[in-house]
Design brief:
- It contains 5 helices and no strands.
- With 119 residues, it is mostly helical.
Length: 119
Amino acid sequence: MGLHQDLLDKLRVIASDLSEEDVAKLQEIALSLATPLPEPLPPPFPSPGVDVNKIFTYHPPRPDQVPRYEEIRARALDFAIYIVTHTPGSAEQTLAIRDLQRCVMMANAAIAINEADGG
């Protein structure tokens, strides 16, 4: 409470020419600024319905999945080449390529994880 009282005392000195209503508003603002905000709650993990065992289990590719993995990678490679040849080398370009890599990985994971049992 010492910090709050110190702020209030300083406001009284600074605001001696203000109306009592204005001083009360300033005091309210000072108290709200000196009060720490509550920390946001973390999202629940795992999300409802998430099977972490399924996510973190190796799913060997089935023969019918391999062409789709290859197609996803080929299309991403084409886009990566386009990005590299049509944008200046920069931190943003690097992030674009890394995000594209992450997209490929997640697309392939969607196939591997959700079609692991043949469907």
